[in-house]
């Protein structure tokens, strides 16, 4: 909720400060996420910050929570979403890699970069990695894969995507979309049906 004061004017809002912190993290890394630079960026007083956050650490903790809820939370939701086949389930997960509203790859890269200098954030990343891997493996078990093979398939899918993010790989959407059926077949051992691909393409506004 926005707050105002007759003495100091508009103080902003928690979301405003958090969004500024998020943008600074993505552009310049965690060292740029400091109260005074954010206040200058927002054209607000430094003291305004303390109406919404106890200190910088609380702001950083809130950023981590935002990353956890968006990227890990949404990946779990997509892997657990209804699907008639493992190929369709895989396409549900692929939504994460193509829709930044579901999974924010730039945020992922920024947090992983932050983890290189913070043992606490590294622990958060490792916990998220394990949760995501467990979720993907569970998805395969749901469709009859034994646990050992499900684990290997989950790792193959996940480590490839983290490689995409870590290398900051950029592909034109038409190029990536044309590769989707082969990715699904390689990752799952099952060729996606045309109707499954059509639904997937439609979700992302793509026409063959």
TrEMBL record:
Residues 11-71 form the HTH tetR-type domain. Residues 34-53 bind DNA. The lineage of its organism: Bacteria, Pseudomonadati, Pseudomonadota, Alphaproteobacteria, Hyphomicrobiales. Keywords: DNA-binding. The keyword Protease does not apply. This is TetR family transcriptional regulator. InterPro entries: Homeodomain-like_sf, HTH_TetR. GO terms for molecular function: DNA binding.
């Amino acid at each position: 909720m926005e707050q105002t004061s007759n003495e100091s004017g508009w103080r902003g809002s928690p979301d405003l400060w958090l969004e500024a912190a998020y943008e600074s993290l993505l552009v310049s890394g965690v060292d740029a996420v400091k109260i005074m630079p954010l206040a200058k960026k927002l054209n607000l007083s430094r003291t305004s910050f303390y109406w919404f956050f106890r200190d910088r650490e609380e702001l950083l903790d809130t950023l981590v929570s935002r990353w956890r809820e968006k990227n890990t939370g949404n990946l779990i939701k997509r892997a657990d979403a209804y699907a008639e086949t493992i190929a369709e389930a895989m396409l549900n997960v692929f939504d994460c890699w193509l829709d930044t509203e579901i999974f924010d790859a730039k945020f992922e890269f920024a947090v992983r970069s932050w983890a290189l200098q913070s043992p606490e954030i590294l622990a958060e990343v490792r916990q998220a990695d394990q949760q995501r891997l467990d979720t993907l493996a569970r998805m395969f078990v749901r469709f009859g894969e034994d646990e050992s093979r499900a684990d290997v398939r989950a790792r193959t899918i996940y480590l490839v995507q983290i490689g995409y993010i870590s290398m900051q790989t950029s592909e034109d959407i038409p190029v990536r979309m044309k590769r989707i059926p082969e990715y699904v077949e390689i990752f799952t051992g099952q060729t996606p049906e045309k109707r499954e691909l059509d639904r997937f393409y439609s979700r992302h506004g793509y026409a063959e």
